[in-house]
Amino acid sequence: MIDEKILKGSAIVIREILLPVEGEDGVFSAPTFAGEKGAPLYFPEFKGETGRIKNAVLVDSVESQANRLEVIFKEGEYKNLVPQIYIKVGNLSINLLEMGHRITDAMVRYSTLYPLVWGQNGALEALRDGNCLEIAKIAPTSLIFGFWDSRETGIKWPRLLRSEIWAYNVLQLGRVGQYTPAVFHKFKPEQEWKVYTELLDLEEMKKLQEEMKEEKFKELLSSVGLGSVPWPKEGRLQNVFRLIPDEGIIQRIASLHLVGLRLHIGVKEGGKMDEDGTSILQQYLLGLGLVALTYPQNYDLRQGCLLRRKSVEQKLVFPDGCEENLSLTHNNALNFAKKAAEKFKEKFDVDFSPKEFEFKPEDKKLKEEYEKRKKKKGEAKEEE
Description:
This protein has helices at residues 4-7, 62-70, 106-109, 114-118, 123-128, 133-138, 140-145, 195-199, 203-211, 214-223, 258-264, 275-294, 330-348, 363-383; strands at 11-20, 27-29, 32-34, 40-42, 46-47, 55-60, 85-89, 92-95, 147-148, 156-157, 161-168, 170-174, 178-179, 229-230, 237-243, 249-257, 268-269, 272-273, 300-302, 305-317, 323-325, 355-358. By secondary structure, the protein is α+β, with helices and mostly antiparallel strands. It has two domains: 4-170 and 237-376, no CATH class; 178-230, no CATH class. Strands 1, 5, 6, 11, 16, 19, 20 and 21 form an eight-stranded antiparallel sheet that branches. The chain has a three-stranded antiparallel sheet with strand order 2-15-12, with no helix packed on it. Helix 12 runs antiparallel to helix 13 (330-348).
C-alpha cells in the first residue's frame, strides 16, 4: 500500500538482478557511443586487481533508461495520466514525451508552444519563482526525469527518478566475421576480384580493373557492396561480454527521490505557497514516479542484449539510514496514479486531451542563435 510513511522517506530504491535470456553463461552487448572521428566506443570499464568487483561495464545509461520509461506515458492506459502535447513538423506530429531535452527541447523552443514555456508568466518563469504547476500542466514528466535549459534561462531541474543498469565482474569477448557475396562461392578466393568482369560484359568495370591495382579494385567492390568484407583487426575486441562464473552480476538500480519531491515541488498562488495545491501536485508526481519506477520493462535493450529478471528487491530508505522492505506492485502504483491524476485535473482544471502546436523556426532567430553560440565558443578559446 502507498501511505503517508512513504512520503516521509528519503527514497524508494529498487534493485533488480538481471540475466541474459540464455542464462548466466549467455553473452550480452553493451552500448556503444561515438568515439573520436566517429569510431564506435563502448563505455570504458575499470579494473581492480583485488576486491569483490574486478571490473564493470555500463549496460544501460541513466539517460537511456529515462527515455525508455518516459515514453510509456504515450500508450494505453498510461496516456490518460499526463497531458498529450504534440509538435507538428510538416506531415509529422511528434509527442513531447519523445523529445530528449523534454520541455526545453529545441523542438519546443522553435514552436508555437514557446510563449507558454519561455514567455512572460510562462512555465519556466513560474518555476524560477518556486511554482511548478505551470510545467506540470504541460509536461509533468519533465519534473520527474529532469531537464536543463542551457540555451536561455539556464535553469537545471534534477531528476527525481534515476535508473541505470551495470554489469560487474565480466569477461570481454572477441568477435570476428566475414561477408562474402553469394556469387563468389563458385570462385577461388584469390580470383574473386575477377568475378564480375568474367561473368558480365561491363566495359566500365573492365576499364577500372585494368587501371587499378588489385587491392584498390577490391576496395571499390567492397565500398559498393559487391565485394568481400573481412572484420577489421581493430574491431575484433568488441562490446560483447559474459558474466564471470559465480562472480558476475547484471544489476538495475533505480531510485525515486522523495526528498526532492517534498523540497522542490510546490504550488504558489499570488506569491504565497498553496499548501493544498502543493499536496495534490506532490501526490500526482509521486504517482507518475511510482508508475515509471515499477514499470515492468521487457529489457530488449539492443541487438544482442535481451535480459530477464532473476530477482527484485524494494526498500524504503529514511534519512537516518533506516530501511524498510516494500512489496509495491505496479498495479498498486497505477491505481494510485490514476486517482492522483483525477484530483490534479479537477483541482487545477487541466485537460489531458491531445493538443498540437506548430514547429515554426524563423531564419532570423536561428541565425541569432548560431551567432550567439559562435561567440561563446570564441570566448572559450580565448580563455584557453
